[in-house]
Design goal:
9 strands; alpha+beta
Length: about 120
C-alpha cells in the first residue's frame, strides 16, 4: 500500500509516495503530512514540523497519539495549515515519526514498539 503525502507550504498539494522515498521527503520545509491506510480500519498519520513530529493512529475505531512522555499539557501547533492543540507528550522527535511511518504496514508491531495515548 502506498503512502499519501500532503504539503502545505508554499501551497497545498498531495501525491502518492513509496516507503523508499520517505526519508528524502521527511523534511519540515513544506510541512508534509504522511498518511498510510487512508479509508481503512487502521490509519497512521504523521506530520513533520521544524524539530518535531506528531503521530496519530486509528486502530480498533479509536484514535491514538504516539507519545514520548506522559505530559498532557496542551501545546499549540500548526497542523495541516491550521492551528491545533496536542498534548505536549505527543510532540515527538522527527526520527520517531519516520520510524512509525516505516512500520505503518505492521500495526501489531507499531502498537508494541511505541507508547500510545487515546485522543
Amino acid at each position: 500500500m502506498p503512502y499519501e503525502m500532503e504539503t502545505y507550504q508554499p501551497y497545498a498539494s498531495s501525491r502518492v509516495v513509496t516507503i523508499d522515498e520517505l526519508a528524502g521527503l521527511f523534511v519540515p520545509d513544506q510541512e508534509p503530512v504522511f498518511a498510510y491506510g487512508s479509508g481503512g480500519e487502521d490509519v497512521l498519520i504523521v506530520s513533520v514540523h521544524h524539530g518535531f513530529s506528531t503521530v496519530s493512529l486509528l486502530h480498533d475505531r479509536t484514535w491514538y497519539w504516539l507519545e514520548e512522555s506522559p505530559d498532557a499539557d496542551p501545546v499549540e501547533i500548526v497542523l495541516c495549515g491550521q492551528e491545533a492543540w496536542v498534548p505536549a507528550g505527543a510532540i515527538v522527535r522527527p526520527e520517531i515519526g519516520l520510524a512509525a511511518l516505516r512500520l505503518a504496514h505492521d500495526v501489531p508491531h507499531l502498537m508494541t514498539r511505541f507508547k500510545w495515548r487515546a485522543q
